[in-house]
Amino acid sequence: MAGGGEKKEHLYKILVIGELGTGKTSIIKRYVHQFFSQHYRATIGVDFALKVLNWDADTLIRLQLWDIAGQERFGNMTRVYYKEAVGAFVVFDVTRASTFDAVVKWKGDLDNKVQLTDGSPVPCVLLANKCDQAKEGLVNNVTQMDEFCKEKGFMGWYETSAKENINIDEAARFLVTKILEKDMANKLGEENRDQDRFKINPTEDSKPDKKFTCC
């Protein structure tokens, strides 16, 4: 790269999942292309888009956003789609409470099919989409939504609107921050494990002295 040292580069795969018609494709298009349309066809199977972030002076992040069709939830292919993901958005539509009811199933499916290298769940953020419209259900109660996320293992939640470009960038930045934290912690853990492997067996000298006190 011209001028300065090499930038660290990360490639992260992020899943965007949730019921049919919740606005997953619209969120991705808004985030990646700053574009909104009312007329997307339902995603069939899977689609993905790439977003490049100059995270800071030393770090370049490429996000692969996987747009997984709502009707795919219980399909056998989702395990393949989820493979190697390090983060996820679960999306529901605030105008349809039924799409919120399905959120727990999506989160359960995600946790069942993909984990980080240390065996922990991938960081996941809940998106309450179409917040520019009239809201139904629990999303009207911020405290209860916070509790729900804590209880169900979401890192947090955001009210979003792809149409009005509300909180899309903020939610993505929050998720990427959590992914980076996990990534750094895991790499540190791996380095420590590697160091432990190379430690030679303790010699007689290094064993603790057995000292007895006589009264």
UniProtKB/TrEMBL annotation:
<dbReference type="GO" id="GO:0008333">
    <property type="term" value="P:endosome to lysosome transport"/>
</dbReference>
<keyword id="KW-0472">Membrane</keyword>
<feature type="region of interest" description="Disordered">
    <location>
        <begin position="191"/>
        <end position="215"/>
    </location>
</feature>
<dbReference type="GO" id="GO:0005802">
    <property type="term" value="C:trans-Golgi network"/>
</dbReference>
<dbReference type="InterPro" id="IPR001806">
    <property type="entry name" value="Small_GTPase"/>
</dbReference>
<keyword id="KW-0449">Lipoprotein</keyword>
<dbReference type="GO" id="GO:0005525">
    <property type="term" value="F:GTP binding"/>
</dbReference>
<dbReference type="GO" id="GO:0090385">
    <property type="term" value="P:phagosome-lysosome fusion"/>
</dbReference>
<dbReference type="InterPro" id="IPR027417">
    <property type="entry name" value="P-loop_NTPase"/>
</dbReference>
<dbReference type="Pfam" id="PF00071">
    <property type="entry name" value="Ras"/>
</dbReference>
<protein>
    <recommendedName>
        <fullName>Ras-related protein Rab</fullName>
    </recommendedName>
</protein>
<comment type="similarity">
    <text>Belongs to the small GTPase superfamily. Rab family.</text>
</comment>
<comment type="function">
    <text>The small GTPases Rab are key regulators in vesicle trafficking.</text>
</comment>
<dbReference type="GO" id="GO:0003924">
    <property type="term" value="F:GTPase activity"/>
</dbReference>
<dbReference type="GO" id="GO:0016020">
    <property type="term" value="C:membrane"/>
</dbReference>
<dbReference type="GO" id="GO:0005770">
    <property type="term" value="C:late endosome"/>
</dbReference>
<dbReference type="InterPro" id="IPR030697">
    <property type="entry name" value="Rab29/Rab38/Rab32"/>
</dbReference>
<keyword id="KW-0342">GTP-binding</keyword>
<keyword id="KW-0636">Prenylation</keyword>
<dbReference type="GO" id="GO:0045335">
    <property type="term" value="C:phagocytic vesicle"/>
</dbReference>
<dbReference type="GO" id="GO:0005764">
    <property type="term" value="C:lysosome"/>
</dbReference>
<dbReference type="InterPro" id="IPR005225">
    <property type="entry name" value="Small_GTP-bd"/>
</dbReference>
<keyword id="KW-0547">Nucleotide-binding</keyword>
